[in-house]
């Protein structure tokens, strides 16, 4: 019996790719593969990314993605941005009516830069003086406010969380981005003291990391900060899908799974068309909230735990203006929620990857945690004019765009709220205790970046291979 992969986003495709020799079946609800990775090529040739646009090469998951890209023979298509490029160095926030460059050098940390009221390096002093608070989890906002001050929580961490998960720092677990800082306080009483001690054991940790391949080594030598691919990020899932079709992998598209039942030594999936698929093992690459209703009948407790996760809805508006309108090149800017503006942030796409026409391309992102009260009932066209006006006001642009595309990405980013990692432990324990042949991969669990979800698929397939050879 085959392994069944549920979901044809990048996590599902990666799982199928790592398992391709075993001829898995991939079930996807829609008629396209790639999930949120979606590049829209305009009639003018300009690329509008509707979802993610860049990948980080750093760390073990970063090297793993580069190994995959190398394996897919996509090395020639990689479009890197090096660490000294303005898009890598200059990230801004829009606060108190102005754009402010976030510190990007060691000396910058020792200067008082608006909108902060003291140098960011002074955080170390705040941290040394702050009392330890013993807890299993806490919101990112509360943790950073306690250890480093309210300024940092409001103007650095809150916008950063908007720029990664479109979420509220007041609800997102501190462990999502600051696990090592959080654990340093718990173990050593102070973040900086803890980090210092951990730095001394860093050599030991590095020795445990995977060996980077040729492309990952090149990324290190050439000091890449981020990268994309020729013709946009969708080149990655499109190439994977093509390679999977050339091997023995079967796809069932346009046919959502509506129910999952585990038997003593197999799993049966019922699809909306009435077809049922039997497999030995199931890799779910669905968002937890989409998997939950499929398990309600047989595993209500597991279904309830999965359904506790919410996802944020984001409006993505791609905008093209004639000519180069960017005075201060950078990756883009984020808007701290305290500013109460309709924009979460704006990416300067044409700074990263210039348009052959020399035009300016931006992507505005709106909504997220705040989508519902703010934008419920608004059409993509209405949201497009909010975004265009927002960009024009902040950047002082007087001309009208030559091209605009607006989409509402419903429930596109899982929110790792306080208690997320404890809930994951409960889910894992349930699966293990009930000996379910179920592997959970994708952005709902242990990381939302593309690297994380590809890595989650690799780890699940490695585990399946290990178990079947035991
Ligand atoms: C706006 C935005 C910007 C982002 N920017 C970045 C970035 O710059 N860099 C980065 O690294 N990451 C970024 N991300 C995150 C990254 O894109 C996602 O985490 C990743 O693409 C998620 O992949 P996935 O396969 O886990 O899930 P998905 O892409 O959600 O795939 C799940 C698939 O399951 C299918 N499905 C759902 N229900 C069923 C069912 N019942 N039966 C069968 N199939 C079903 C869906 O149709 C979908 O194809 C961004 C995400 C968004 C939304
Ligand atoms: C304003 C909204 C958003 C912007 N990007 C995203 C949202 C919701 C989504 C997103 N961006 C990144 C990731 C991957 C994280 C990872 O683990 O790799 C996701 C899901 C990358 C990213 N973008 C910003 C940062 C600080 C990061 C982390 C990695 C890195 O350093 O590159 C900043 C940022 N995001 C947005 C803007 C406008 C912006 C900064 C100016 C848009």
From TrEMBL:
Function: Catalyzes the 6-electron oxidation of protoporphyrinogen-IX to form protoporphyrin-IX.
Cellular component, GO annotation: mitochondrial inner membrane
Organism domain of life: Eukaryota
Protein name: Protoporphyrinogen oxidase
GO terms for biological process, alphabetical: protoporphyrinogen IX biosynthetic process
Signal peptide (residue range): none
Short name of one Pfam family: Amino_oxidase
Alphabetically ordered keywords of this record: FAD, Flavoprotein, Heme biosynthesis, Oxidoreductase, Porphyrin biosynthesis
Reaction equations catalysed: protoporphyrinogen IX + 3 O2 = protoporphyrin IX + 3 H2O2
